[in-house]
Amino acid sequence: MNRTHTNGELRKEDAGKRVTLCGWVAKRRNLGAICFIDLRDRYGITQVTFNESFQEAIKDIRNEYVLEVTGTVAVKEVPNKNLETGEIEVQVESFKILNTAKTTPMIIADKTDALEDVRLKYRYLDLRRKPLYTNLLIRDKVTMITRNYLHSLNFVEVETPILSKSTPEGARDYLVPSRLYKGKFYALPQSPQIYKQLLMIAGMDRYFQIARCFRDEDLRADRQPEFDQIDIEMSFADEEDIFKVVEGLMQRIFKEIKDVDLEEHFERIKYDDAMRYYGSDKPDLRFDMRLHDLNEVFKATSFSVFSSVIENGGLIKAINAKGAASKYSRKDLDHLTEFVKIYKAKALAYVKYSEGEFTGSIAKFLSDEEKEALKKEMDIENGDLILIVADEKSIANVAMGALRVKVAHDLGIIDESSFKFAWITDFPMFEYSKESNTYVACHHPFTAPHDEDVDKLLTDKGNCYSRAYDLVLNGYELLSGSVRIHDQAMQEKVFEALGLTKEQAQDKFGFFLEAFEYGAPPHLGVGIGVERLIMILCGTDNIKDVVAFPKTASAMCLMSEAPNTVDPAQLDDLKIKIAE
Ligand code: ASP
């Protein structure tokens, strides 16, 4: 075609040039017989001006028509400051209508009030909107930076199968029935975990892949049934090596996309400390407001709620909302109580401190000694508000962790422009599942235990720690990974600890276990959640904003209407009958 420039390109210096532009009609304005059209493509908008001689020829042109215009670049008398090309216009000499358009079901503008269902059904129109396609451009840039960076460190991109065997990330699999093997199924990979470890055994040394992963889970605002991971695995390396690789990658991405210089080494926090001080394994570190453990302060309390929690092995946890005593009314505090109840806490106690006096729901139970101890432990000053949950250990931590973040948002003390990364290390090896009444892998079953916990794997599962790690950023989990087991006997022992019989382990992972008999190198890796990273870079908390063709919260594609029924002949081929 004849296009000479994009619609984001022309400047004052181009005045006098004869150009041909293509694009969509974003806006049409008539001034007497003269017509101004904003012509849009993904590079920008250029104003093209039709003089009176075109009046008849262009009378039908409406928004979203596709045009090719040829004309001369002229400097505008009054520049349009809202457009990058605003200093110029193109005075049209000839034009072609390349296509017409019906009235669109949503307005194509930066801001839209169209319902999400409409935006998803007409996604290709929604994607004409700058905020949305800009997110895709950022995503493209991030994957480019990633590929270049990892290649520069000798990593090799290898694709692994989509039709695979069930993998062990612990979510529900998407299954694909086999036509050739009646009753058998492929599983779509929840991650390339097994394959990337096999690539280490194959001697690939340094692997990466921008890998599509599939998990049939209940969806949330930050989940989609299919998503991408920057999946990395390396041999003959330990935590220091992989942390350095990932820190370097983040530094590049944040420099190029946000022009932010990240610190050279990210903070490291042990899992137990993260839970103790922040009540979360993905703490938001843009503000401090740590959780305090008040069991010692209240060891001789006359307040029976606290004393019975201590007796039963629970925790009294508190935060100091600095200067917030006058900011929360009684009613606001009731709301906070409702809030902690979401996290199963039974109640929220509080004390306010002003002019040397404690007031509030439990003030009357505080002895002078306890007041002093509390002041010291929590660094209490005039005007502070202390919020307290006393409950089972995990409930007290998690509820206070969530409250910490809520209160910080309420008080507006979070620096939204900062990026606080931290490695969370030393995760528990197993977590107890109340539903199944068993221990399950905290990360996945290929994660190496700490050397000193190996003897406890079968006898004291609740106290085994692993060499798993997460990278968190501003309260989000950005990646997880681990040092892997590379010894067959150890892998078998961990399967046993997870309650898999020898036969079950053989049936599920036999080919994988066998590979360990042929010289598996020490190795470790990570999977970085691409969408989450892009969401943070784009400043959105809706994952759909960073996926070209996303699914709804009920896993539907409103545009193509997938999933859908299929031809009965296809089901016959697969020997599948749909049960009523
Ligand atoms: N496969 C893991 C995950 O998806 C990441 C890893 O251990 O590399 O969480």
Could you explain how this protein is built, in words?
The protein contains 14 helices and 22 strands. It has helices spanning 116-121, 123-126, 130-152, 193-201, 239-258, 271-278, 304-311, 330-342, 368-378, 393-411, 488-497, 502-515, 530-538, 568-574, and strands spanning 18-31, 34-41, 44-50, 66-75, 88-99, 156-157, 175-177, 185-187, 206-214, 226-235, 267-270, 292-293, 315-321, 349-354, 357-359, 384-391, 421-425, 430-433, 438-441, 468-473, 476-483, 523-529. The strands form five sheets. The protein has an eight-stranded mixed β-sheet, sandwiched between helices. It has a five-stranded mixed barrel with strand order 1-2-3-5-4. Strands 12-13-16-14-15 form a five-stranded antiparallel β-sheet, sandwiched between helices. The longest helix is centred in the N-terminal third of the chain and has 23 residues, at 130-152. Aspartic acid binds next to strand 21 and strand 22.
